[in-house]
C-alpha cells in the first residue's frame, strides 16, 4: 500500500505530537511520581515518628507517675489508713483520666485500696503484673480486660484493652511494703494518634496502626487488629510501597518506638499507610492534563500539516494528473510549470526537459518501428511467395515422375513441409503481431489443407486445439512435426482404403505445451517407428525445441510431443536494425 505525501506529512506531524505527548507523560509519571512519592514518604515518616515519640513520652509520664506515687509517704508508710491511700490513688486517676484503675497491693497479694473501691480486699497474688512489680517498675503490653472491663465499662460493647503498670513501694529501710499497680486504658493511644494525624486532611486516606513487638496489630482498622503484618524487613525505614493482605498497594512508613529516659519501651511500632492511587492522584491529574493538552496540540499539528501538505503536494499532484491524462492514449504528458517553491520548480523544469527529449525520441522510434514493420511484412510476404514458388517447382518436377516412383513420394513430402512453413509466414504478415502466431489456428488450417489433398475421402482430420500464441521460432518446428505425424498416419494407419479419423490435440498446462496426433487405424507395432526420413526429421525437431515425444499403440497410434512453454523458451528472436 502506497502512502501519499500529504498523508505522510500529516501522519508525521501528528505522530511526532503524540510521541512527544506520550514521552512527556511517561517522564512526568516517572520523575514527578518518584519525587512525589519521596515527599509523601518523608511526610508519612515524620508523622509516624511524631506518633512514636508521643507514645514513648506518654508511657514515660505514666511510668514516672507510678514511681512518684510510690515515693509518697502516705503510700510508703505501713500505718497509713486505707482511705488515705485510696484518696491519693483517686487523685492520680482524676488528674489523668486515662487510668482505668489504680490499686495498692500488700506484699501478701491482698488488694488494700483501689480507685472506685474495685476489688478491694481481693487476693490478686495470681496476677502477673503484681509479681513483676516486686523488684522494679514494670510496664506490660496491651491486653484485653475481659473481667475488669465489664465492671469499669459496663455500657461498652467492645472489650476494653489495658496496658499494665506496676512499681514496688519500699520504706526508708528498703523493705517492700507493697506494690502500686495501674491499668492504663488503650484509648490513650488512639488519642495520641488523633493528636498527630488530625493535621492531615481526611481525603488523603492516611491510616495509622500500632504494632506489638511481634508485628501484631494492636491498634488500627478493625479488620486488621490482632493480625500479624509481614513488615519485619521494613522496620524503621522511609516510606515504600507495600502490598497488604487485602491485595491493595499502600505507601507504608514504619517507625519503631525506642523508649524514653528510664522507660525502656515495649518494642511497639507505628505504621502509617496511604493508598497509592490517592497518594499519586496529583501526578495522575497532571499527567492527564499533559495528555489532554498534547492531544489537542497533535490535532492542531495535524490540521497545520494538512494545510502544509496540501500546499507542498499541489505541484506534484498537478504533474501526476497530467501524466495520468496522457497515459490513457499513450501520448506524452504536457507537464505544467510548477514554481511554488524551488524544489518543485527544479523538478518541474527537469521533467519538462526530459519529457521533451522523450517526445523527440518517441517520434524517431515510431518512424523506425513503422519502417521495420513494413520491412518485416514484406520479408514474410516474400518468404511466403518464395516458398510457394519452391512448392510449384517441386509439384512440376513431381508430375514428371511416374506414379509409384520413390522420388515422387519424397518430393511430395518435401512439398508438404514447405507448405506448412509458408502458412506460418502467411499468418504472420497478415496479422498485426509480427512476434507470434496463433498456433492453434495454424494447426486447424493445416488440417483443412491436408483434408483437401486426401485421395481417400473416408478419412477425416480433426483439430481440437487451444488458442496458444507462439513465437515463429517455436511454431515452425512444431508445425513441421504436426505435418509429419499427420501425413505418416494417413499413409500407414488406413491401408486398402479403410475409413477412420486422425485427430490433433493442442493443450497448454502450466509451463508445458502438449501436442498429440492420434489415429484409430491399424496401429504401429514398432514403438517408436524407426528408419524413415520423417521419423528422423521429427526426432531432430523435437530435440531442437527441447521437448520429448512418446508413442502409444493401443488402440491405433498416438504420438505425443511435450515441449517447455516458459517465457524464455517462447522468446522470439530479436530483429536488429
Give a quick rundown of the structure:
The protein is α+β, with helices and mostly antiparallel strands. The protein has helices at 5-70, 73-76, 82-95, 128-132, 146-152, 187-197, 276-279, 281-327, 342-400, 406-430, 439-453, 472-492, 533-544; strands at residues 99-105, 111-114, 138-144, 161-170, 176-185, 207-211, 217-219, 237-243, 249-256, 269-275, 436-438, 459-465, 469-471, 500-509, 512-519, 548-552, 557-564.
Description:
The longest helix has 66 residues, at 5-70. This protein is α+β, with helices and mostly antiparallel strands and 577 residues long. Mean pLDDT is 76; it is low at 573-577. The chain is elongated, with a radius of gyration of 58 Å. The strands form 4 sheets. Strands 2-1-5-4-3 form a 5-stranded antiparallel beta sheet. The chain has a 5-stranded antiparallel beta sheet with strand order 7-6-10-9-8. The chain has a 5-stranded mixed beta sheet with strand order 12-14-15-17-16, covered by helices on one side. The protein is built from 13 helices and 17 strands.
Topology:
Blueprint: H1 5-70, H2 73-76, H3 82-95, E1 99-105, E2 111-114, H4 128-132, E3 138-144, H5 146-152, E4 161-170, E5 176-185, H6 187-197, E6 207-211, E7 217-219, E8 237-243, E9 249-256, E10 269-275, H7 276-279, H8 281-327, H9 342-400, H10 406-430, E11 436-438, H11 439-453, E12 459-465, E13 469-471, H12 472-492, E14 500-509, E15 512-519, H13 533-544, E16 548-552, E17 557-564
Parallel strand pairs: 12-14
Antiparallel strand pairs: 1-2, 1-5, 3-4, 4-5, 6-7, 6-10, 8-9, 9-10, 11-13, 14-15, 15-17, 16-17
Helix pairs in contact: 1-6, 1-8, 9-10, 10-12, 11-12, 12-13
Amino acid at each position: 500500500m502506497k502512502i501519499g505525501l500529504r498523508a505522510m506529512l500529516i501522519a508525521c506531524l501528528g505522530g511526532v505530537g503524540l510521541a512527544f505527548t506520550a514521552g512527556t507523560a511517561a517522564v512526568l509519571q516517572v520523575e514527578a511520581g518518584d519525587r512525589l512519592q519521596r515527599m509523601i514518604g518523608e511526610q508519612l515518616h515524620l508523622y509516624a515518628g511524631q506518633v512514636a515519640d508521643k507514645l514513648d513520652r506518654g508511657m514515660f509520664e505514666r511510668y514516672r507517675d507510678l514511681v512518684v506515687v510510690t515515693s509518697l509517704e502516705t503510700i510508703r508508710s505501713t500505718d497509713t489508713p486505707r482511705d488515705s491511700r485510696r484518696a491519693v490513688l483517686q487523685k492520680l486517676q482524676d488528674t489523668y483520666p486515662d487510668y482505668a484503675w489504680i490499686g495498692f497491693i500488700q506484699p501478701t497479694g491482698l488488694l488494700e485500696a483501689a480507685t472506685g473501691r474495685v476489688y478491694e480486699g481481693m487476693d490478686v497474688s495470681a496476677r502477673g503484673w503484681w509479681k513483676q512489680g516486686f523488684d522494679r517498675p514494670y510496664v506490660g503490653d496491651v491486653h484485653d480486660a475481659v473481667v475488669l472491663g465489664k465492671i469499669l465499662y459496663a455500657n461498652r460493647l467492645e472489650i476494653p484493652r489495658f496496658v499494665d503498670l506496676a512499681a514496688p513501694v519500699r520504706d526508708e529501710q528498703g523493705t517492700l511494703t507493697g506494690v502500686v499497680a495501674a491499668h492504663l486504658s488503650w484509648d490513650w493511644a488512639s488519642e495520641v494518634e488523633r493528636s498527630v494525624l488530625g493535621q492531615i486532611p481526611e481525603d488523603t486516606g492516611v491510616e495509622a496502626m500500632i504494632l506489638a513487638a511481634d508485628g501484631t496489630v494492636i491498634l488500627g482498622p478493625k479488620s486488621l487488629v490482632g493480625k500479624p503484618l509481614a513488615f519485619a524487613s521494613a522496620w524503621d525505614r522511609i516510606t515504600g510501597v507495600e502490598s497488604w493482605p487485602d491485595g491493595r498497594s499502600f505507601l507504608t512508613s514504619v517507625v519503631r518506638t525506642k523508649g524514653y529516659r528510664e522507660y525502656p519501651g515495649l518494642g511497639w511500632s507505628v505504621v502509617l499507610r496511604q493508598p497509592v492511587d490517592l497518594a499519586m492522584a496529583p501526578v495522575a491529574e497532571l499527567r492527564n492534563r499533559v495528555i489532554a493538552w498534547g492531544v489537542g496540540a497533535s490535532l492542531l499539528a495535524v490540521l497545520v500539516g494538512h494545510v502544509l501538505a496540501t500546499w507542498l503536494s499541489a505541484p506534484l499532484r498537478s504533474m501526476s494528473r497530467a501524466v495520468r491524462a496522457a497515459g490513457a492514449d499513450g501520448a506524452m504528458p504536457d507537464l505544467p510549470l510548477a514554481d511554488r517553491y524551488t524544489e518543485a520548480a527544479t523538478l518541474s523544469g527537469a521533467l519538462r526537459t526530459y519529457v521533451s527529449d522523450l517526445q523527440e525520441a518517441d517520434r524517431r522510434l515510431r518512424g523506425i518501428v513503422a519502417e521495420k514493420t513494413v520491412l518485416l511484412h514484406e520479408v514474410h510476404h516474400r518468404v511466403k511467395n518464395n516458398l510457394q514458388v519452391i512448392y510449384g517447382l517441386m509439384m512440376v518436377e513431381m508430375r514428371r515422375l511416374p506414379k509409384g516412383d520413390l522420388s515422387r513420394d519424397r518430393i511430395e513430402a518435401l512439398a508438404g513441409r514447405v507448405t506448412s512453413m509458408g502458412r506460418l509466414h502467411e499468418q504472420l504478415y497478415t496479422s498485426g503481431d509480427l512476434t507470434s502466431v496463433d498456433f492453434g489456428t495454424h494447426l486447424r488450417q493445416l488440417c483443412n489443407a491436408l483434408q483437401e489433398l486426401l485421395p481417400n475421402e473416408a478419412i477425416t482430420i480433426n483439430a481440437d486445439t487451444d488458442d496458444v500464441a507462439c513465437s515463429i521460432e517455436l511454431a515452425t518446428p512444431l508445425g513441421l512435426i504436426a505435418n509429419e505425424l499427420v501425413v505418416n498416419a494417413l499413409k500407414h494407419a488406413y491401408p486398402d482404403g479403410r475409413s477412420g479419423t486422425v485427430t490433433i490435440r493442442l493443450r497448454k498446462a502450466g509451463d508445458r505445451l502438449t501436442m498429440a496426433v492420434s489415429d484409430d487405424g491399424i496401429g504401429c507395432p514398432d514403438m517408436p517407428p524407426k528408419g524413415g526420413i520423417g521419423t528422423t526429421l521429427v526426432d531432430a525437431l523435437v530435440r531442437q525445441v527441447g521437448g520429448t515425444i512418446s508413442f502409444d499403440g493401443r488402440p491405433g497410434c498416438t504420438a505425443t510431443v511435450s515441449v517447455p512453454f516458459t517465457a524464455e523458451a517462447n522468446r522470439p528472436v530479436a530483429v536488429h536494425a
